[in-house]
Structure formats: structure tokens, C-alpha cells
Amino acid sequence: MDKPAFEDIFMELAVNLAKRSHCIKRHVGAVLVKDTRIISIGYNGPPSGTHNCDEEFAGEGCARDSKGSCSLAIHAEQNAILYAVKNKASVEGSTLYVTLSPCLSCARIIFSMGIKEVIYLKSYAEYKGLTSDEGVDFLETFGVKCSKYSGDIAHVTEMI
């Protein structure tokens, strides 16, 4: 049996974490890794102890802010970083696997926290209808390596 690459395992975990999201609009998962070890995970949704959008606002989702984004949601990347910091784990020098490339706001946080690499499954720009991935552009400008995932997660879950 061929062993799956760590990159495939981490991206598959991010995909599965996204399924935990309570967001009506979009499910996103994130995994923070350092030296092939998972240091934190996250998915998008409201802060712990507030409303679950798919339960409280089942039809329309939570209220939108002035830019049309969810007013309650914490992005998957933010949740993974916050959980690591809350548990006193350093994210500096880590790699972030995420199912949707970071928005500009998340990119600023990723850079500020010293994360060295971001591997994303899908483009935020394509999802939002933008001309470019502003978050990826920002990160690359300041030396954070970014790449679209090109592996294969389909074979990882096959069991013999």
C-alpha cells in the first residue's frame, strides 16, 4: 500500500473540518502544521457561546456586515490561530492548510503570526467574483509562500 503524503492528509482533514461549520454561506476548514505535526485546527463559524447560524437563522443565515460578509463568523484560519494561541502553541514557522484561500484580513493575521506557508484548495477570488486573490497577493508580497493544492485527497480515505 502506498502511504499518502502528509500534504494530502492535512488537506483532507481541512476538508472534513469544513463539514463542521454552521455557516449557511460557505464551509471552510483549516489545519496548522509544524514539522508534520498538527498544532491546531479550525473551521468558520460564530464565536463559541453565540448562535449557530444554521440553527438560529436557518433560512437566511446571520446578518451581513457592510461588505456583505457574515457579521458573526470567525474565519477558519482565525479559529485555528486563536485556538493555538489560547493553548500556548507557537504558530511561527508553521504551514496552514485551508480549503479556501485567505481573504485580505486573514492574510494580515497569517503574516503577523509568522506563518511561513499557506496551501489552499480553492480560490477566494473565484468564490467572491474578484479579479485576484488579494490575500494571496498580500502574503506573497511579504514573503509567505502560497500555493494552490495540487495533490489528491480522493485516495486517502480508501481502505484496504
TrEMBL record:
The keyword Hydrolase applies. Pfam families: dCMP_cyt_deam_1. GO terms for cellular component: cytoplasm. PROSITE patterns: CYT_DCMP_DEAMINASES_1, CYT_DCMP_DEAMINASES_2. Residues 5-133 form the CMP/dCMP-type deaminase domain. Transmembrane segments: none annotated. Keywords: Hydrolase, Metal-binding, Zinc. Its cofactor is Zn(2+). It comes from the Bacteria. GO terms for molecular function: dCMP deaminase activity; zinc ion binding. Belongs to the cytidine and deoxycytidylate deaminase family. PANTHER family: DEOXYCYTIDYLATE DEAMINASE, DEOXYCYTIDYLATE DEAMINASE-RELATED. This is dCMP deaminase. It comes from Reichenbachiella agariperforans.
